[in-house]
Amino acid sequence: MTKSILLVGVGGQGTILASKILTTGLMEAGYDVKMSEIHGMSQRGGSVSSQVRYGDKVYSPVIEKGSADIIVSFEKMEALRNLDYLKKGGKLVINDEQIDSMSVITGKEEYPDDVLEEIEKHAQATVLNATAMAEELGNVKAANIILLGTIIKSMGLEDIDWDSILKDNIKPQFLELNLKAIKVGMDAV
């Protein structure tokens, strides 16, 4: 049975790195894995999404609307924007962070105050502030690995050796921080 994971966020949040580490772990665990990523002006704070599908045999990296087993949103508006990809009964994890898009910064649009309330009307979500949690660990940039930890726990992937995968994919000076971050994420859901 193929499982579908959608990671969404804003450029610079580490969405792609988290999905690459996830993909590496799944491949090392023996799954057939397909991944695709979309960078929408990601260097300028645009939307970024990464689709990861895994199972015995996966034919396409594309997640159809209404078929994601889990959506992990690194920014709350991106959760609302991608909600139609979540399957009925799927899991939704949201980092309670607001990052204004270029249209909000320039005054063309307003960031809605009720994003989380709007999401709750359509899906049950686990909301956490991964950014603040990462700050407590000593580096705000570890939020992506905290969110990766939520995926690992939510999808029952704890038996994969994530410590060694992090060791192979993270710069040595940030390894200790990220080993803590992944555990914080697993404990948060």
Automatic annotation (TrEMBL):
Residues 11-187 form the Pyruvate/ketoisovalerate oxidoreductase catalytic domain. Pfam families: POR (PF01558). This is Indolepyruvate oxidoreductase subunit beta. The lineage of its organism: Bacteria, Bacillati, Bacillota, Clostridia, Eubacteriales.
